[in-house]
Specification:
233 residues; mainly beta; Alpha-Beta Plaits; 3 domains; six-stranded antiparallel sheet; five-stranded antiparallel sheet; 1 helix; 15 strands; 41% strand
Length: 233
C-alpha cells in the first residue's frame, strides 16, 4: 500500500513553497519532496543536504534540484528519504534458483547404485589401494557409464532491507541456520541445512543504509564448520 499526503511548510518570508509530496511505500520507506520558489539572493535559506524534513524528522534531504528562471527567480525541489521504523525496515526476501554439480560418490544413495569396493554394482570401479571410487565403466555400467557428477539445487537467497546501522562486514563468510535478518518470518528451503553469508553489499542514502545480504544454501549435510565458522548466536 502506498499512502500519499501533503504538507505546507514556509521556510521564510523570502521563500514561497509551491508544492509538496509525502509517500509511504509498502517496503517501509518514506519519500517526500518540497518545492520552493525564491530569488537567487536567498539560496542560503534553502534546506541543506542531510537537513531534517520540517514536518517529519525521520526524513533527511538527500538531493536538491535547482532551476534558474526569468527575473532571477529560482525553483528548487528538495528530495527527502527515510524509513518508517526506528532502526530497520522489514526484510524482503529474493530467491534465485539454479543447479550445481556434485561428485557422484557424495550422493546419499551412492551405495545403492554403486555398491562398495568389495561388492561393486553397475560397473563401478574402485582404486585397489585406497578403495576410492574411480568411475563407472564396462558393459555392466549401462546408464551409469561415464557418470561422474549429479545435479543438486543451487539455493541463493538475498535479504534486502534499509537500516540506520552501518553493516558489519565481519559477519561475511559465516554460517547461519537461517538468515539473521527476518529469521522469524523466513521460510526454510527443503534440503538446505544452513546458509553461508557470502557478502552484504550496501549503499548509503542520507543517514540510512540499503543492504542486500547474499546467502548461499548448503546441501543436506550443511556447510563445513571447520572451514566456515558458525555465526555467533
Amino acid at each position: 500500500m502506498i499512502e500519499k499526503r501533503s504538507a505546507t511548510i514556509a521556510k521564510s518570508d523570502t521563500i514561497l513553497q509551491k508544492d509538496s509530496s509525502y509517500v509511504i511505500k509498502n517496503d517501509g520507506t518514506i519519500e517526500a519532496s518540497l518545492t520552493f520558489s525564491l530569488g537567487k539572493d536567498y539560496l542560503d535559506e534553502l534546506p541543506a543536504i542531510d537537513e531534517d524534513h520540517p514536518v517529519d524528522r525521520r526524513l533527511k534531504c538527500y538531493n536538491k534540484n535547482i532551476t534558474y528562471g526569468d527575473l532571477d527567480i529560482i525553483t528548487c525541489t528538495c528530495s527527502y528519504f527515510g524509513i518508517a521504523a526506528k532502526q530497520s525496515t522489514d526484510p524482503v526476501f529474493d530467491y534465485s534458483g539454479g543447479t550445481s554439480s556434485e561428485p557422484i560418490e557424495t550422493h546419499d544413495r551412492f551405495d545403492v547404485f554403486a555398491g562398495t569396493n568389495s561388492a561393486p554394482l553397475n560397473g563401478a570401479t574402485y582404486d585397489s589401494e585406497t578403495g576410492a571410487f574411480v568411475n563407472f565403466s564396462g558393459e555392466e555400467a549401462g546408464d551409469f557409464l561415464g557418470v561422474q557428477y549429479y545435479l543438486t539445487p543451487a539455493v541463493n537467497v538475498t535479504v534486502n532491507y534499509w537500516t540506520t546501522n552501518k553493516p558489519d562486514l565481519t559477519k561475511r563468510m559465516k554460517v547461519h541456520t537461517v538468515p539473521e535478518i527476518g529469521k522469524d518470518i523466513f521460510r526454510k528451503v527443503p534440503g538446505v541445512a544452513d546458509y553461508l553469508l557470502v557478502d552484504m553489499p550496501y549503499r548509503r542514502v542520507g543517514d540510512l543504509y540499503q543492504v542486500s545480504e547474499l546467502y548461499m544454501g548448503s546441501g543436506a549435510r550443511g556447510w563445513n564448520k571447520t572451514i566456515y565458522k558458525a555465526a555467533a548466536k
